[in-house]
Specification:
Blueprint: E1 2-4, H1 10-14, H2 16-19, E2 36-39, E3 48-53, E4 69-72, E5 88-91, E6 98-102, E7 107-111, H3 116-123, E8 128-129, H4 141-146, H5 154-157, E9 164-170, E10 176-179, H6 185-191, E11 200-207, E12 209-210, E13 215-223, H7 226-233, E14 242-247, E15 259-266, E16 285-286, H8 298-312, E17 319-322, H9 323-327, E18 333-334, E19 345-353, H10 358-370, E20 375-382, E21 396-404, H11 408-423, E22 427-428, H12 438-444, H13 448-458, H14 467-472, H15 479-482
Parallel strand pairs: 3-5, 4-5, 16-18
Antiparallel strand pairs: 1-6, 2-3, 6-7, 7-11, 8-12, 9-10, 9-11, 13-15, 13-17, 14-15, 14-20, 19-21, 19-22, 20-21
Helix pairs in contact: 10-11
Length: 484
């Protein structure tokens, strides 16, 4: 059975929630200045009044003359990747049509503004699941491609790019190019992980993964220290299709790197009581205001970490858990970034190759010595990387940590961590970064020259530009002339 978008079809009626997004920002009348909207990254470090455009369909997309453009989906990149203080931010929320879905093969084509949340609504009842999913469902397909997102199963199936059949990219001159691993491959691999700087990702054709139920058969293990955590993440006896570790970033001494290692797979029918393929209906808790900055402090974080380690670590027997709780625990709390207060926070995610794994201990010891409060330590095992010159994953381990923004001392600490990451042959994830220097970035991504050559070929005037690209030196052409 094949489903194709048709305004009069049952698909349009039955999936209207997935296909239609409410318009919240109107385009300005022709000839007038574009409207303004306050925008920031998810870390809320810096808010800018940006000029925005919200095309209603792909046919309405235009790139303003003499202005730079960056595309923005749900705004879940933590730093300044989808923000531009001096150009136009093109909001893709309405470019969200499901264009084709073969429920027999699991091949789906959708416009890049479709979110993972709406994708789940469509595919789970029909026995399919995204092959790779990040830790939030509030991400668009286009944003997921631009960041080449990885999940808890990278060590088994790679990043999202490994499952893309083809995609359409709208270039700065208005032409649309179809590319994939076997077609216009240079553009494809430059766009995957390219943070939206090669063009507008218009549509994506993706191979989904089959599932028998919507439940996850999970099992947790309490790890007493870093060496045990690293061993278990790489050990077939503790591994599963999805494997991840919550790490206590404040643990010290012999307990440094203690964690709860979590593994799971999509439950088979014979593994789940009352097996079903059902979309979870949840009403997230609201964070109604910005928490005072003193709430997140070493004492409160240490107490939370101790409780989490004891409570979650008890789940040593296999159990069935809802996919929402397993993949998207933070989505159960709307606007959870407000917990860090008005000053915001920084998420620092790095990867180290297998030969540099010893650096994980050095980095955790440096963080521990700083006595900075650290929330949400998450460690995963990476499999081999892909040909994308700016793609983040590579064979080794990755660790993500949240730091409340308390002032220049935090920035100095992260600069020190950058130097350690470089020394051990690793790199920092651009989708999470908000402050790295261009010099350090170039040392982490030695294939940057390849990417820049493709960027200059498809965008010689530097039309696609963001605050991140200007900070890291990824803008080519004549940005001074294009930026207003």
């Amino acid at each position: 059975m094949t489903m194709t978008k048709n305004p009069s079809s049952a698909l349009e009626a039955g999936f209207s929630r997935a296909l239609v997004a409410e318009r919240t920002v109107a385009d300005a009348p022709a000839g007038s200045a574009p409207p303004k909207q306050a925008l920031s990254g998810w870390g809320r470090l810096r808010v800018v009044e940006a000029s925005v455009s919200t095309p209603a369909c792909l046919g309405d997309v235009t790139f303003p003359a003499r202005r730079t453009v960056v595309c923005r989906g749900e705004g879940r990149s933590y730093g300044d990747a989808a923000v531009s203080a001096n150009g136009t931010v093109l909001l893709t929320r309405e470019l969200n049509a499901l264009e084709h879905f073969d429920v027999t093969t699991g091949v789906l084509t959708a416009q890049a503004g479709l979110t993972i949340e709406r994708l789940l609504d469509i595919v789970i009842p029909r026995g399919w699941f995204p092959p790779v999913t990040p830790g939030t469902k509030h991400v668009t397909l286009g944003g997921a491609v631009a960041a080449d997102v990885h999940g808890k199963n990278h060590h088994r199936v790679g990043s999202l790019a490994s499952h893309i059949i083809e995609m359409d990219v709208m270039l700065a001159d208005g032409t649309t190019v179809t590319c994939g691993p076997q077609q216009n491959a240079e553009l494809f691999w430059a766009t995957v992980g390219g943070m939206g700087l090669t063009g507008l990702i218009a549509r994506v054709t993706l191979q989904l993964a089959p599932i028998e139920t919507s439940g996850i058969l999970a099992q947790y293990f309490r790890s007493p220290d870093l060496e045990t955590t690293l061993t278990w993440l790489a050990d077939s006896g503790h591994d599963d299709h999805y494997t991840v570790a919550w790490v206590d970033g404040l643990s010290r001494g012999r307990s440094l790197g203690r964690s709860v290692v979590m593994r799971g797979h999509h439950a088979r029918r014979d593994e789940m009581p009352n097996p079903r393929l059902a979309v979870t209906a949840t009403t997230p808790l609201q964070v109604p205001f910005d928490f005072p900055s003193f709430v997140v402090n070493p004492l409160s974080v240490r107490a939370f970490n101790q409780l989490y380690y004891l409570v979650e670590g008890r789940k040593s027997r296999p159990f069935v858990v809802d996919y929402e709780r397993f993949f998207y625990p933070l989505d159960r709390m709307a606007d959870w970034n407000r917990l860090y207060g008005k000053r915001g926070f920084l998420q620092y995610q790095f990867m180290l190759p297998d030969e540099g794994t010893a650096g994980v201990r050095v980095i955790l010891e440096r963080i521990s010595a700083s006595r900075r409060p650290v929330f949400l330590g998450v460690m995963k095992r990476f499999g081999p990387g892909n040909p994308g010159p700016l793609s983040f994953p590579g064979q080794g381990f990755t660790l993500a940590l949240d730091f409340p923004m308390t002032g220049p001392d935090v920035l100095r600490l992260l600069d020190q961590l950058d130097d350690l990451v470089i020394a051990y042959g690793g790199r920092v994830y651009l989708a999470k970064d908000a402050r790295m220097s261009a010099e350090r970035f170039r040392m982490m991504y030695p294939r940057l020259g390849e990417w820049l050559r493709c960027k200059e070929a498809v965008d010689p005037n530097g039309c696609f530009s963001s605050d991140l690209s200007r900070r890291l030196g990824l803008t080519v052409g004549a940005p001074a002339l294009l930026t207003v």
